[in-house]
Automatic annotation (TrEMBL):
<comment type="function">
    <text>Beta-glucosidases are one of a number of cellulolytic enzymes involved in the degradation of cellulosic biomass. Catalyzes the last step releasing glucose from the inhibitory cellobiose.</text>
</comment>
<dbReference type="InterPro" id="IPR036962">
    <property type="entry name" value="Glyco_hydro_3_N_sf"/>
</dbReference>
<keyword id="KW-0624">Polysaccharide degradation</keyword>
<dbReference type="InterPro" id="IPR013783">
    <property type="entry name" value="Ig-like_fold"/>
</dbReference>
<feature type="domain" description="Fibronectin type III-like">
    <location>
        <begin position="703"/>
        <end position="775"/>
    </location>
</feature>
<dbReference type="InterPro" id="IPR002772">
    <property type="entry name" value="Glyco_hydro_3_C"/>
</dbReference>
<dbReference type="Pfam" id="PF14310">
    <property type="entry name" value="Fn3-like"/>
</dbReference>
<keyword id="KW-0378">Hydrolase</keyword>
<keyword id="KW-0325">Glycoprotein</keyword>
<keyword id="KW-0326">Glycosidase</keyword>
<dbReference type="GO" id="GO:0008422">
    <property type="term" value="F:beta-glucosidase activity"/>
</dbReference>
<dbReference type="Pfam" id="PF00933">
    <property type="entry name" value="Glyco_hydro_3"/>
</dbReference>
<keyword id="KW-0119">Carbohydrate metabolism</keyword>
<protein>
    <recommendedName>
        <fullName>Probable beta-glucosidase G</fullName>
        <ecNumber>3.2.1.21</ecNumber>
    </recommendedName>
</protein>
<dbReference type="InterPro" id="IPR026891">
    <property type="entry name" value="Fn3-like"/>
</dbReference>
<keyword id="KW-0964">Secreted</keyword>
<dbReference type="InterPro" id="IPR050288">
    <property type="entry name" value="Cellulose_deg_GH3"/>
</dbReference>
Length: 788
């Protein structure tokens, strides 16, 4: 077991509208949610009115120890029948818990481009948290957005495209909260790199502050804040402020982002909770908008080395006037309203599974006091393996398929190569570093989860092959493949499946683009023997693929991090039980440098070394495909791309329906405070675009028509991307079938953030609209002028 150091390390790993057409239906409409929220506010106010100041301090300060089972805890107040709050890490599984499911990562979910399925994933996650007695799931993630291709936590979030991430946030939040669990949208904001994300101390205790993300106003609104606006609009009840500084001020004590942007401009009515150890002040943070600090006060076993900035200091702050009574009550009202809003006060809300103390201890390398009675874990997995398997298959992106080598047609001699095909050999929980032998299903750090099983690719391939009597030969050591040693293989396989992986974890950034473990040598060697090589990647992020154009590499599948059903999901795609319909939620550049914004790895030479870590977001809006488009660089595989076993065409022209007669330049004013999401006029649909999509091939399957919008160059500021994603729908079609797909554009979708006016503005002039099957597909186009 690991010592206390490992424990502290683990704890520091931060605990961490319906689209057009079909679309999931959230349990409550906006209006019903607002009504339920108001009723919950009344209850929260009544609760606050009964508290004394000690209790008030406890309500805004966490407590962590082996006598409190969750990674974040608000202690109960028995005299008021308040049973406390339990916060647990997501966003991909309930971490530090036994008998839970390990789901596909956010990145994988995004690759489905399927709002319904993303909702189902969120709902299943929420059901597991609730069944364990968890009140708050720490997730979903919209920050990091993915500015850096090698960011260590990108896989926890969805996509570097804010529109895709925004809708994935919305669907996930509806899913989690429809299951009766609080979502906590994180990390707010600018936490794009792990390197120096938080403050650090030299051996002589000299403090170096966290990196400062320096983001201009327009970039903030159109890129990094955008998906958080969707999250607030969807009703997320809590938001986690991040480790980093933002414009030189720590995120959790930055009034510009917490009070002004989040609470005022976006009308966020819930609570802001600090990332674990991300609070650096008391009254300053509270007055900036921080409502709850985590992990909280020192506990009996000395889990925490420093006491909280809140806790026992709160009564003093009240006494000396550095915070007001009203503000303290506001904090507690914000913490408690979600609890009533989601009926977590009801008798039938499950009690916290006390077995969580064992997994908390196990994942922290701690022992519980001798004689602690063993408590069996509550099994909350239900039938969630089904949605996991389905999503793993639907998220798989087919990047290359020469000679229609896929789907496989009963090959009798199958070669399987690479460490990623194998059963895990070092346990079923991935910590913060990679294992050499074993398939990769999820990343490391606070966002990981404990498997009860993993279906490895090899296991699933053998099971499939056995059904029709095929031979399966395998070499699982990459070192053996890398030295070109295939003496163990005879006769040569008809088809060679190479499985590669790329690990990433919270706490550090990746350093190379290639998949891990000598991947290029492995692919080159297999391909040199095998003209029918198929490469599958299980990756926590974007990879370069130096072997992509090798003629013997006939097919490539990017399967990301699929969760516990990994092998079943990929076999479903390989043998054609599922027709692949995943699309890249990012671009793969031909040359990594084409699209790279390097992580900052050193402080800036500066007089004040304590504050010298600076990250200037000078590329503005131009990340990922927006950058490639602006520079006219052709990628290897573009954003939105993914092949199918059938073919699709946009068969109709674009129909444009104006939903509002005269479109003004700016939204109608609305008196503050704003409802969740900010000025409602921004969310008003202005246009409906529709066209017809047809399955022109011979196999049933799904595809994703995507709507891209180009704003007029002459009427928008410098740095406006040539095109931005503004709509997508996943549609399933039988061979020959066609259907109409519609995209509604809201005011925000057709506006840019005007820094001078401090407002979203619809530019005059002609907008370009295009519907195609990727960011580079010709598709069908039309232009439209919106303003009269
Ligand atoms: C507040 O109430 C608690 C009981 O929940 C009690 O133990 C505590 O002493 C009270 N504190 C003050 C300052 O009255
Ligand atoms: C950060 O600083 C930039 C440059 O001065 C400014 O445009 C932006 O509005 C600031 N953002 C916040 C949230 O303070
Ligand atoms: C990569 O292959 C080379 C040559 O076989 C070997 O020396 C090296 O240890 C391998 N590296 C890894 C990370 O497996
Ligand atoms: C729309 O604008 C035109 C031209 O400015 C005006 O004549 C018309 O009355 C407006 N219609 C509405 C519904 O506001």
């Amino acid at each position: 077991m690991f010592g206390l150091g490992a424990l502290l390390l683990i704890i520091q790993f931060s605990a961490g509208a319906l689209g057009a057409g079909t679309g999931f239906r959230a349990r409550r409409s906006d209006a019903e949610r607002n009504e339920a929220w108001e009723a919950a506010v009344v209850k929260a106010n009544a609760f606050v009115a009964q508290l004394n100041v000690t209790e008030k301090a406890n309500m805004v300060t966490g407590k962590l120890g082996l006598d409190t089972p969750c990674i974040g805890n608000i202690i109960p107040i028995p005299r008021l029948n308040f049973k406390g709050l339990c916060l647990l890490d997501g966003p991909t599984a309930m971490n530090r818990a036994d008998l839970v499911s390990v789901f596909p990562a956010g990145l994988t979910a995004a690759a489905t481009w399927d709002k319904d399925l993303i909702y189902e994933r969120g709902k299943a996650l929420g059901e597991e948290f609730k069944a364990k007695g968890g009140h708050v799931m720490l997730g979903p993630v919209a920050g990091p957005l993915g500015r850096h291709q090698l960011g260590g936590r990108n896989w926890e979030g969805f996509s570097p495209d804010p529109y895709l991430t925004g809708l994935a946030m919305q669907a996930t939040i509806h899913g989690i909260q429809d299951a009766g669990v609080q979502s906590c949208s994180k990390h707010f904001i600018g936490n794009e790199q792990e390197t120096q994300r938080s403050n650090s101390f030299s051996p002589d205790s000299k403090e170096t502050q966290a990196i400062s993300a320096n983001i201009d106003d327009r970039t903030m609104h159109e890129l990094y804040l955008w998906p958080f606006a969707d999250a607030v609009k969807a009703g997320t009840v809590s938001v986690m402020c991040s480790y980093n500084r933002m414009n030189q001020t720590y995120a959790c004590e930055n009034p510009e982002i917490l009070n002004r942007l989040l609470k005022e401009e976006l009308g966020f009515p819930g609570y802001v909770v600090s990332d674990w150890f991300a609070t650096h002040s008391g009254a300053k943070s509270i007055n900036a908008g921080l409502d709850l600090t985590m992990p909280g006060v020192k506990d009996i076993v000395g889990l925490l080395t420093q006491d909280s900035w809140f806790g026992g200091n709160i009564p003093t702050m009240i006494q000396d006037g550095s915070i007001s009574d009203e503000r303290l009550d506001d904090m507690i009202r914000r913490v408690m309203t979600p609890y009533y809003f989601l009926d977590q006060d009801k008798e039938d809300f499950p009690t916290v599974d006390q077995s969580l103390v064992f997994t908390l201890a196990a994942s922290s390398g701690l022992s519980l006091p001798a004689g602690t009675p063993i408590i069996a874990a509550r099994d909350v997995r239900a039938d969630h393996a089904e949605v996991i398997r389905k999503m793993g298959a639907e998220a798989t992106v087919l990047l290359k398929n020469v000679d229609s080598i896929l789907p496989l047609r009963k090959p009798m001699n199958i070669g399987v190569f690479g460490n990623d095909a194998a059963e895990p050999t070092e346990g079923l929980t991935f910590p913060s570093f990679a294992f050499e032998i074993g398939t990769l299903t999820i990343g490391g750090g606070s966002g990981t989860g404990r498997h009860t099983y993993i279906v490895s690719p090899l296991e699933a391939i053998k099971a499939r092959a056995r059904e029709y009597g095929a031979r399966v030969q395998h070499v699982l050591h990459n070192t053996v493949v890398a030295r070109n040693d295939f003496t163990g293989i005879y006769p040569p396989p008809d088809v060679c499946l190479v499985f590669l992986n790329t690990f990433a974890s919270e706490g550090y950034d990746r350093s190379v683009w290639e998949a891990d473990w000598n991947s290029t040598q492995v692919v080159d060697n297999v391909a040199s023997h095998c003209p029918n090589t198929i490469v599958v990647t299980h990756s926590a992020g974007i990879n370069s693929m130096p072997w992509a154009n090798n003629p013997n590499v006939k097919a490539i599948l990017a399967a990301h991090l699929p969760g516990q059903e990994s092998g079943n999901s990929i076999v479903d795609v390989l043998w054609g039980a599922v027709n692949p319909s995943g699309k890249l939620p990012y671009s793969i550049a031909a040359n990594p440098a084409d699209c790279d914004i390097p992580v900052v790895t050193a402080p800036r030479p500066s007089a004040d070394s304590a504050t010298a870590w600076q990250s200037d977001f000078t590329e503005g809006l131009l990340i990922d495909y927006r950058h490639l488009d602006a520079r006219n660089i052709t990628p290897l595989y573009e954003f939105g791309f993914g092949l199918s076993y059938t073919a699709f065409a946009v068969s109709g022209k674009l129909e444009i329906e104006r939903l509002v007669a005269n479109i003004s330049a700016v939204p109608a004013t609305f008196e503050k405070p704003y409802p969740p999401g900010g000025n409602p006029a921004l969310w008003t649909p202005l246009l409906k675009i529709s066209t017809t999509v047809k399955n022109t091939g011979s196999v049933a399957g799904a595809t994703v028509p995507q709507l891209y919008l180009s704003m007029p160059k002459e009427a928008t500021p410098v740095g406006t991307p040539p095109q931005v994603l503004r709509g997508f729908e996943k549609v399933f079609l039988e061979p020959g079938e066609e259907t109409t797909v519609g995209f509604e554009l809201m005011r925000r979708d057709v506006s840019f953030w005007d820094v001078g006016a401090q407002e979203w503005v619809v530019p005059p002039g002609t907008m370009g609209l295009r519907v195609g099957f990727s960011s580079r597909d010709q598709g069908v186009r039309r232009t439209v002028g919106l303003r009269v």
